[in-house]
Automatic annotation (TrEMBL):
Record field: compositional bias (Basic and acidic residues): 53-66
Superkingdom of the source species: Bacteria
Name the UniProt record assigns to this protein: Uncharacterized protein
Ranges where the record places region Disordered: 1-25, 53-88, 130-177, 300-323, 406-448
Biased composition (Pro residues): 306-316
Amino acid sequence: MPIVEDPDPRRSEGSDPDGSDPFENLVLDEEFVKGATVKEQAGRTRMLAARWKDQPPVDPGARRTVLDPTPARPKRRLRRAPAPVDAWGTPRRRGRDLRAPLFVLLTVAVLLAALNLDGLRDWYRGTRGGLPTSAPSVAPETARPGSAPPSLAAQTPTVDHPWAGSPAEGWPAGPGAIELPPAQAVGAFDADQVAAQLKLVKDFLVASNLDPAVIAGGRPETALDLLDREERDAAVRGLDHPDRAADATSLFSRFDPRDAIPVGDVRVLGRMSVEGDGERGVLIHTDFSFVYALRPGPEAGRPLPGSKPPASPRPAAPETSAAAKPVAWTIAAKPAAWTIAVAEEAGGSTRTTRTVVRRADTYRFYDPARYRNNPKKINFAEFRGDVANTACHVQDGFYHPQFEQFAVPAPPGGQTPHGPATDPYDRSTPAPVPDPSAGPECGTVSRS
């Protein structure tokens, strides 16, 4: 029907005035699509075109576009020079700047060196002298070595590194360093009895030289219980009333805690052997070196009582027992034998020292069928040995090591070393034979 906008009646769709259909022979194939002269735009394209008529798009500069090939200018941060870019505006990759890490490493190295000046000095000495700075590991001895341990670069021992510069650094430590030889039947004793005797001797060595309480100045009750009656009486006399004829250090390694405090473990090197003693029984020979690392006690460096040697040798006490014989070793000390304190707080020092005690003693076990004795207790046949780094002519039942940081030349009238210089680590020669009439010697040691 006619409408306002279209008053004329419309022709039916798809018909010409002459009544024919113009699309009757139209084929919508690929050729028809390719030959189209007008193409419909996508809906999003028409929407964006309508929007951009009033609000043209703005390029944020985050990417390059075909419309604006000029690259965005790089931003400048923290007043640094802008990163270089190539012709397309891509930042060029810089090489790594190693200055900052190197500066940090250098600062840390300087701080560590400042905190450990002694270690830095020791390292410098070692590199100059060409000597090794650490000792090789050493197994327990099975026979006497052929030479002394090699020399090491001079180093300053500290609480953290008490064995620096010492051959004992590579020695075994603690009771495990005392190995027992194979037990065989000897004389009146069968193999099991000899094995028990060897273990008894080891127990005594451990109780008298490796017990931390004894080393720190305690009374060696466990070791005393292993001695036969006469030997025990003589040892107690050396503990309660020490003098040159009977001093506790002839059997026990003890340090006065006012002077020296043990640090860490004890390094041990040596050997044991068994020998028949004819009709009397069995002899067990021992030769061990015990090395103790020590830090200063609260009174380290102060004058010791009785530091002057006696005017003439005192006569030896009657030989009622082997343990009552004069101390049978050379006492070696460094040149400044007597020292005085040069620091207000001696115990606050971190530098340490070492004392080397060599004991080459012989133990006798009598045949119980011929002698009245307790076969499960210890008797002594001979004492040998020496001590490096202890005060000379001081018999008070303790060792008194010297600390270099508190040492000054001895005052007038004080004791000065006069004995030969020895290497306390040299075990290639037999332990010295004592001369009771001459008294203890006061010599020097080549190293400690």
